[in-house]
Amino acid sequence: MNVEYINPFLAAMVSVFDTMLGCALARGAPFLKQTACPDYEVSGVIGLSGKGKGVVVLSLCREAALAATEVMLGERPPEINGDVTDAVGELTNMVAGCAKAQLKHLALSVSLPTVVVGKWHVIDFPKNIVPICIPFDSCWGPVAASVGLVEQQPAAEDGPDPA
């Protein structure tokens, strides 16, 4: 994976959390993600396609997911529920959309977000893609973005028919 593809997602995370949630993020050291288990309990997942293909996962600890939902809806949910999954899906969509704007040369399309909840859920990345995880600390607890994105090789053109 080209590490230059990470900076747009890093900037998008910081911008979306600051602008939409009023929450500053402190970036940790990026690392290669070796497991299919996200770091935290609530994960928003978006597929990317176009001249690049891959997956972006926004993973939040329980408290960060609840607090972000509270800011977005004006009321704190009593537990992880549909409001929380909708809010995390929307945050994931905003981060992916913001990063997509910085990666115009890949002509990316962004899928609809899916949100997965649970302590030991698994999210697979496309074959041969090792994602890079960018951990962040926030006033609500840890969050992370895992990005696995590679440029698609153009399909080989068919030659003339050997008829």
Question: Which properties best describe this structure?
Answer:
163 residues, alpha+beta, Chemotaxis protein chec, eight-stranded antiparallel sheet, 3 helices, 8 strands, 30% helix
In the predicted model, the low-confidence regions spanning at least 5 consecutive residues are none
Radius of gyration: 17 Å
The pLDDT mean sits at 90
CATH architecture: 3-Layer(aba) Sandwich
Give structural notes.
With 163 residues, the chain is α+β, with helices and mostly antiparallel strands. It has one domain (3-151): Chemotaxis protein chec. Helix content is 30%, strand content 28%. The protein has three helices and eight strands. Strands 1, 2, 3, 4, 5, 6, 7 and 8 form an eight-stranded antiparallel sheet that branches. Helix 1 (6-21) packs across helix 3 and helix 2 packs across helix 3 (82-102). The radius of gyration is 17 Å and the shape is globular. The termini are far apart.
Please sum up the structure shown:
The protein is an alpha+beta fold and 163 residues long. The chain contains three helices and eight strands; from the N terminus they run H-E-E-E-E-H-H-E-E-E-E. The longest helix is centred in the middle third of the chain and has 21 residues, at 82-102.
Task: List the SSEs and their pairings.
Layout: H1 6-21, E1 26-27, E2 31-32, E3 42-49, E4 52-60, H2 62-73, H3 82-102, E5 109-110, E6 114-117, E7 132-138, E8 141-151
Antiparallel strand pairs: 1-7, 2-7, 3-4, 3-5, 3-6, 4-8, 7-8
